[in-house]
Design a protein that fits this description.
Rossmann fold; 6 helices; alpha/beta; about 180 residues; six-stranded mixed beta sheet
Length: about 180
């Protein structure tokens, strides 16, 4: 037996911290695909619109504890107005997503940030420009993305659920900020 117990005993005694986080953005920006890439490490080309809310869980091993992310994938667009802010209650943070190939999704970042802040003014928000892999179809520049989020935050990430680019990093940064 190792000093201080076995590895199994160490993990059994580690504290578990639970955090509810939400993915917000208009329909078809890639919220479900980002979650699927992060939680299941896969991508599916077929588009299935989220109806209402879908929940997933992923455990992260942190230096002194486990962090359980309870990830709420919320319907976007007009349907979000119908379900109201009740689904945001208890959320510690959110990834707010726009589609880099659809400029009409960019101004909605502020709307979703406002909805989250109305429920939890200290929520950690990370802004995502998704579908960076579709470079020839890209319609939102880095400057436009930066200008849209400047009143809301200082940084944004560009991700691709398809290739996995920056997906883990987005959730990792959220975890880091939630534990500050």
């Amino acid at each position: 037996m190792q000093r201080g117990g076995t590895v199994k005993e160490k993990f059994r005694s580690m504290k578990i911290v639970q955090k509810k986080i939400c993915l917000l953005g208009d329909f078809a920006v890639g919220k479900t695909s980002l979650i699927r890439r992060y939680v299941e490490e896969r991508f599916d080309e077929s588009y299935l619109s989220t109806i209402g809310v879908h929940m997933s869980r992923k455990r992260l091993e942190r230096p002194n504890h486990f962090l359980d992310f309870f990830i709420w994938d919320l319907v976007g667009g007009e349907d979000f107005h119908k379900i109201g802010r009740n689904y945001l209650l208890g959320a510690a943070g959110a990834l707010i997503v726009c589609d880099l190939t659809r400029p009409e999704t960019l101004p909605k970042l502020a709307y979703y940030a406002e909805q989250m802040r109305a429920v939890n003014e200290t929520a950690v928000l990370i802004f995502i420009g998704n579908k960076v892999d579709l470079a020839t179809e890209r319609a939102i520049s880095d400057d436009e993305l930066h200008q849209a989020i400047t009143p809301l935050a200082h940084t944004f990430l560009q991700t691709s659920a398809k290739t996995g680019e920056n997906v883990n990093n987005a959730f990792y940064q959220l975890a880091e900020l939630l534990e500050m």
